[in-house]
Each structure stands twice: as C-alpha cells, then as structure tokens.
Design brief:
Elements (H helix, E strand, L loop, with lengths): L13 H12 L5 H11 L9 E6 L2 E5 L17 H13 L3 E3 L17 E4 L4 E6 L2 E5 L1 E2 L12 E2 L6 H8 L3
Antiparallel strand pairs: 1-2, 2-6, 3-4, 4-5, 5-6, 7-8
Helix pairs in contact: 3-4
Length: 171
C-alpha cells in the first residue's frame, strides 16, 4: 500500500480524525489491523505535542513530549502537587473524577511504585496520563450496552482536550 500525504482539514482535531477513521473503517478490521493500516497509510499529524501510537478497545494511545520524571514524582508522595492541581482542574472541566492508581502492583519489601493520573467516570477511565504516554477513550459503553462488550458509543471529550492536557506535560 502506498503512503499518501495526509493533512487534517483546518479545525479538525487529532482525536476527531482518529475517531472518524475508526468509524469509516467499520467493524471489518480488528483494532490491530486498524492501527497498522492507519499508520501505514500516512502518519497522522501531531496536536499539542501528542502523536498517534495505537488504538485498542476504544482507547487511543498517544506519544507525549519528553518528560523530566522529577517533575512528575516528588521525593515523597505519589504525584507532584503541581501535576495533581492541573489534573484536578482538567477533571473538573470535563466532569470527571481524578484517581492516582499505581503503575504496577507493589512487591513485598520494595519501595512503592510510581503512580499515574486517571480521569474517569464511575463506569470507566476516560484519560490515563503517564509521563511516558497518554491514553484517551474515544468509545465507551452506555448502561444499555453493558451486556454487549463489543458495543461502541462515542465519547465526546471536546475539541480542546489535547490542548488542556498539554499543560500537564509541560516540564
């Protein structure tokens, strides 16, 4: 397949372009095929320092600007207070709750693991912010679809989401 140059129409956002591509390919491709096909056709442009990496189960994974890990993790505590403050403001803006789960399960006798930020509803995580990657849910499940794990409903996160999240990734 020949790579073609692709640019987003003015005013189109990266997450919207990925969502529209997934919808246009339909259910005939699994998530891995969709990711490879999308990347083979032409890399999507970046937005606010984020670039497309993969798509799986309704969630897009994006690369993030290079991070100074010390700006995320203080000597004591889970997440730097400044990152928590920014994440809390984003959560409030989008009507989500903020959580700070560990990156890995703690092992006996080892220091506690680093944590990352999750913004979500009661039902699902919508945003997972980590110093090495960003995940954003584009499709989720409604209460009516809870018995159909393949059902996909659009989650509208807003056109300014990546711009808002970019503040979290400033060092």
């Amino acid at each position: 397949m020949e790579k073609t140059e692709r640019t987003l129409p003015p005013g189109t956002h990266l997450l919207d372009a990925i969502r529209a591509s997934r919808e246009s390919f339909g259910d005939g491709l699994n998530d891995d095929e969709f990711t490879r096909l999308l990347l083979l056709r032409a890399p999507l442009p970046t937005e606010a320092g984020f670039a497309f990496l993969s798509y799986a189960r309704g969630v897009v994974t994006l690369s993030v600007p290079e991070q100074n890990v010390a700006s995320w993790y203080p000597q004591k505590g889970w997440i730097a207070p400044e990152k928590e403050r920014i994440a809390q403001a984003i959560a409030k803006k989008y009507g989500l709750s903020l959580f700070e789960p560990p990156d890995t399960s703690p092992r006996c006798g080892e220091p506690g693991p680093h944590h990352h930020l999750e913004l979500g509803s009661r039902r699902e995580t919508v945003i997972q912010a980590h110093p090495n990657y960003l995940k954003v849910r584009l499709f989720g499940q409604s209460l009516a679809d809870r018995f159909d794990p393949e059902a996909k409903n659009r989650l509208e996160v807003g056109p300014a989401l990546l711009e808002d999240l970019a503040v979290l990734y400033l060092n």
